[in-house]
What we know:
- The structure holds two protein chains of two kinds.
- By secondary structure, chain A is mainly alpha-helical.
- Chain A has a single domain, classed as Glycosyltransferase.
- Chain A is built from 13 helices and ten strands.
- Chain A has helices at residues 3-14, 32-42, 60-72, 76-89, 117-134, 137-154, 192-198, 204-217, 252-259, 265-275, 299-313, 319-322, 329-345; strands spanning 58-59, 101-102, 155-158, 161-164, 181-182, 230-231, 237-238, 245-246, 282-286, 292-296.
- Chain A has a three-stranded antiparallel β-sheet with strand order 5-6-7, with no helix packed on it. In chain A, strands 8-9-10 form a three-stranded antiparallel β-sheet. Chain A has a two-stranded antiparallel sheet with strand order 1-2.
- In chain A, helix 3 (60-72) packs parallel to helix 13.
- Chain A starts with a helix and ends in a 5-residue tail after the last helix.
- In chain A, 59% of the residues are buried.
- Chain B has a two-stranded antiparallel sheet with strand order 1-2.
- The longest helix of chain B has 21 residues, at 187-207.
- In chain B, helix 11 (246-259) runs parallel beside helix 13, helix 14 (300-316) runs parallel beside helix 16 and helix 35 runs antiparallel to helix 36 (717-729).
- Chain B has helices at 2-10, 34-37, 93-96, 109-117, 120-133, 152-162, 166-179, 187-207, 211-220, 230-242, 246-259, 263-273, 279-286, 300-316, 324-336, 341-352, 356-369, 373-385, 389-396, 404-419, 428-441, 444-456, 460-473, 478-490, 494-503, 509-512, 518-524, 541-553, 571-578, 609-621, 625-636, 641-657, 661-668, 675-695, 699-710, 717-729, 733-744, 749-760, and strands at residues 52-54, 74-76.
- Chain B is built from 38 helices and two strands.
- By secondary structure, chain B is mainly α.
- At the A-B interface, helix 4 of A face helix 7, helix 8, helix 9 and helix 38 of B.
- Chain B: Residues 1-17 form the signal peptide.
- Chain B: Keywords: Signal.
Amino acid sequence: MSRPAAAARVLALALGGLMSIVPAGHADTVAAADWAAYSSRFVEPDGRVIDDGNGGISHSEGQGYGLILAAMAGDEAGFDRIWSFTQTNLLLRDDGLAVWRYDPRSRPPVTDVNNATDGDILIAYGLSLGAGAFERPDLDTAAAGIATTVGATMLRRYEGRTLMKPGAAGFWEQNRPDAPVVNVSYWVFEALPVLGELAPGADWDGLARAGLALVAETSMGPRHLPPDWASLKGRPRPGQGFPAEFGYNAFRIPLYLVRAGITDRALLEPFRHGMREADGSVAVVDIASGRATAKLADPGYRIIPALVDCVLDGTRLPADLAEFQPTAYYPSTLHLLALAYLADHRPDCR
Amino acid sequence: MKSVLLALAALGTGAGAYVALTGAHLGTAAPAAEHDVMRPLSWSQGAAPVVRTNFRPAAGETGIGHIDINAPIRMAQAAPAPAPAPVAPAAPPAAANGGAAPARQVDETALRFFARQGDTRRLEAEVARLRALYPDWVPPDDFLSVPAETDPLLDAMWQLYAQSRYAELRSAIAERQTSEPAWTPPPDLLDRLAVAEARVRLVNASNLKQFDTVVRLAAEHPSLLTCAEVDVLWRLAEAFAGTERMLRAKDTYLYVLDTCQNPSERLATLQKALPLLPRADLDELLARERTSPDGEPEFAAVRDDLARQSVATGSEQADAVIAPDDVAKVEDLARTGDTASDPLLLGWYRLLRGNAREAERWFRLSRDRENSAEASQGLALALVELDRPGEAEAVVYDWRETSDEIRAVYHAAMINLLAVEPPVAIEPSVLARIVGEIAETRDPTAGQQLGWYAEAIGQTETAAEWFLTTLYWKPDEERAAYGLAIVRSRLGDEAGVAEVQRLWSGRSERIARLGEPETERTRRLGAVPPPDGTVAAEPSPSVAVQPRVAETARPAVAAVRPAPREEQRPPRQVAAEAAAPARRAERPAAGRTPRGCSTGFVAPDSLAPAAALTRGWCLMELNRPMEAAAAFAAALRGGSEETRRDAAYGQSLAYLRLGLADQAAVAATQAPQSQQRVGELNAALLAQRATSAFEAGRYVETILALDERSRIVPEQNDLMTLRGYAYMGLRRYGDARRIFEAAAATGHRDAMRGLAAVDAAKRRY
């Protein structure tokens, strides 16, 4: 069993048998042609992963996704260019974590030294996948450095649980009246046990348990969906200063759950009903009213409820979602992650 | 190609030197003794004299991360063979990484490639690096004689390396390893690539002031620390200085001076150190000065700058102690040179230190060389100090439109000219332009002063008109009302006098008491009796008033100094500054100039209220608001109503400058203030509140505070920008865009940046 697979089992045990034990994320689950189409569109020769939906900037999240997808596609050359860029341009912080944003049009391209914890987690996870796929222990060393800092500084005890601080600055006590504010989609569930192996000193199991509980606790409103940003001060509420929406961040929650092998019906059911509109598009949902503030037809978004259909009911994927065509960085990333899971675990749905 | 060979020949003794940072990270086994912990990286250049320096850790320095940066840094120059050698021989990186270190063939492919490319800089760096790694290695005489590279793929890789396309090179190596499993990349290529990436990363971290990262990378890649990469050495020194490790910063600069030969880089090293190191350390660096081939001391320019910097400090801080040598040096430069800036510096220096006569001399010299706004401003101030306001008026008239500050100086000059006692005859053309300026700017202080001047030269009716006009501009201008009452009385207009007295009933004691016996009036007006206790000799009313008015109007020297040139600053800092009301506005008579105010510690409670008030203003001038607040508090505990009012005002200004909006609000309520002050304080308080709310991420409060403020005063660009960012924080991108557009339309830089930020911030972030 590959190490991520073993790690997934650790997570399963930690969660008390809540889900079936499914290994996820070993190499060669992303088709070479799909990855080639993705990387020729969204990865520059210098290894910068471009968020074309956000004005062509880059960020730690995108570099992390790039590493993960390259490792799963077995493309060492592509992996190495992304890693080189990530290391030289983002892994600059004194604490060893990545600055979160890189804008090539700005001089210098980095203007804010804050980190985004999910970006750090995705990078560490991607490095660890690369270490396994390409037999490169040096990548594990780099991953362990990041995981250790995340474990020591971003995992915080709050009211008896271990939570994840979304970034070094902001979000937590003293920074804002509604602290702590969390982003449940920053819990990359499949990565947590892997980071736990890399940095055993921190309470990764507790973090996973708290994250899973938060998916349910922060779901609210007529559609019973979690907001992108939730304040946990008192009763969970949407975080102040953020749109009170189930939006682009939170779309990822069911994807991350399924990819980690968590196929619990009670957890997943509200997502596929809440996020899907009658016409099949995926909705950005205003939490309080339950109204759709935007409807998105991109296959990369639509595949998420379809993935839930598959794991809960064995429903086959609609034909237009089974084929990958790059559209925009973010939905295309989600699309590849969903297809990779299906290829590996539910070929019957494709 | 000749240049390549020449460059090689010119490679000096220091080019291959390393600065060795200690590193537990480099060791393969836990070392037993300290000198083992440190692998004192040596470099070998036989020609250099043996200079071995061992540095002890600076007291109080703390380590970072897992790298034992607390252990001594050693920068050692390895001796040629015969030297006694406590310094271990340098191990190549392979050994440091845990592998064995077999004697290996020196890989010269990179050298050959760079030689063929004519890439002198990289060729030099590579020679330096190889020399450091392999002390016994002797560079070939002519790289071009070596047979050409026969591996085109490898050649392409070196090409990528030469173009700094490191990510693509990584990719190319991985690709070839996949397609040709038998191929292994030359270790030299991998080493160089790792070092090159580390260099880019170090520079990026340095630009973001991530100093621990800089130090860590330098420690991990000691081969970066050579004279060939002097920029890296400078950045390392800056990182040490930025993390309070001054001794290490100094040592790093010293290392460059002891080792590196390039004259312009040596000079630049001093210039880099100039703003970072204390003077004593800089002097130690200067001691490494050499004489250049043309016989000039190589750091002459820096020595001059150092003296200028010192005098500049002395021209801004009244209590700074400046070495007489520095002043003498700048005076020498000012006399022998032909720049306008050196004498200007000396002018400000002398002016702040109360020597207006010397100041006049230097400002004149500067102005003769270049008639600038600043030199004219300084000269006018000096002349006002010297009681020659007529000359001051003439000097600064042409520059009055340049800035608000210079306009204030012009007004000070003309007000003082009008206040000269006995009145001087002012040339009609000068008087005409003074009248024009006052009418145009509607300056109430100047307006009433013109009234007193007219009164003094016997134009009583004109005087009445000016007092009336002034009251029209500023209805609560008591000095004008008093003047009006006096000239009406002189004109026999008793009804007019009574009208003024009625309107000012309860607001001005001296207006109410007009017509009472003189002696009684003067005493009650608060004229200070002479030390013998007798009442002052009887002055005429106008004489009694005028000098005091003139005093009031004379601006403090420090307050009208030109502000330092503003760098680009983020909007919140600009907004914070906007929170402080104009310092010069309505300065109370007592708060004049820092001159004569002792800068040592004085217990505020030991002072009488009036003295405490004076000291408060003085401390404000010196920008010591914390102490000023205490002095104002002492003044608030007693004293006249006016003293208490001024003290409360001063205390709120002091708290505002400290960023303590709540305390400022409380202080403002301790004594009733004029309408104008209330408005000014409220605006400042609300700006401060908006700024702190923004910094705390409370965007709704930010906007509420700004809304409230905009009902009092118009919103200036920096606060509009703050408002824009607050809207962004609330994801109200449409509103943010509209605000940024409005501010950007006036050319406001931060607003333009805000516009770009709105466009970038979309969906998820």
